[in-house]
Write a structure and sequence with these properties.
Strand content: 5-15%
Strand order of the largest sheet: 1-9-8-5-4-2-3-15
Distance between the termini: 17 Å
Mean pLDDT: 97
Order of helices and strands: HHEHEHEHEHEEEEEHEEHHEEEHEHEH
CATH superfamily of the largest domain: Type I PLP-dependent aspartate aminotransferase-like (Major domain)
CATH topology of the largest domain: Aspartate Aminotransferase, domain 2
CATH architecture of the largest domain: 3-Layer(aba) Sandwich
Helix content: 25-40%
Largest sheet: 8 strands, mixed
Shape: globular
CATH class of the largest domain: Alpha Beta
Low-confidence stretches: none
Length: about 375
Amino acid sequence: MGVPFIDIKRFEEGFLDEWKEKVAALSLNAQFIGGAEVANLEKSLSEYTETKYTVACANGTDAIQLALRAVGVSKNDKVLLPDSTFWATFESVVNVGALPYTIDTNPVDMQMDFSQFEKAVEEVKPKAAIIVHLYGWGSSRIEDYRELCKKKNIILIEDGAQCFGVKYKGSPLYKNSTIATTSFYPAKVLGAAGDGGAVFANDETLANKVRCLANHGRTSHYGHGLVGWNSRMDSLQAAFVNLSLKRFDKRLESRISIANKYQEDFKKIGVNVINPPSDYTENGYCNVTLFDNQKRTALETILKEKGIGFANIYPGAMSDQEGSKEHLQKKFSTGEAGKIASTVLNFPLFPYMTDIEYNEVLGIVTNFQSGKN
């Protein structure tokens, strides 16, 4: 039958009808920029994440750059960031003129390695650091990161593009951050109908600066107190996310259920499946497994033949990217990020994945593990 890696077309009953009505109403009133949809979304997001302020913006990459600029990171400032992440994290540091230093990955929780981070803090003495909450959970050392950065007067930005809906010790992961970001790219757990993002802050001054920067540095319609750029979220994207947020609990429940199945069933057949650290309730963003490179290549060949989607999130470390060569200052590494990149394999996981689809994936992997394929 075949199973896609992700299917973003599985909406709840009545969702598309409500979306069509919303588009017609916004179009009829020519409400395309700002307005009630954006304001309502920001209010709802703050309530959901238990953060004081939310600023919606054009995309997740802009969200990181806005956060960096808002906390004062600029030309030649030193910034630490994970070696395992999406390119947007790295390029955001470069795009604000700062100097990136990459930190290796912990193979247990698949997040930035705290011991390497401590070493870099002492050697580099950075102005800021970015921690990325990967795979639908976060670091087992998140409290240590926050405490160390506070102690050393390092601004910690939390890139939460993959962690919307994640809870740490029963509360939203964003809740105790200084400043955090998310993406509403359509394939995210909470996605828009196009690009979108948001910055979460617990400090009013930071939030106001983000809002100013995202709207051409405006202090009034023709007054500009900062050099910003245009990163406004449009009303249509806000409306789509608003409708999705109303149904988010059901989507989250479906994702988590499937993620739990993978973790339980894959363990039984000897697959090295990665579980979230204790104290975390994941959001089911993706399934994460590790195979040695030769076995992974063989399994990928079978998956392609059977029409089963898969991914390698992520297939390369930031320090190994061609585009990083002229910008990377140093990497603090024991080689784990590269090892993980060569062994990670992600299987289909999306809301409302059927039992038939799940069992097809499980059956193929079970046969592979037993040597029947």
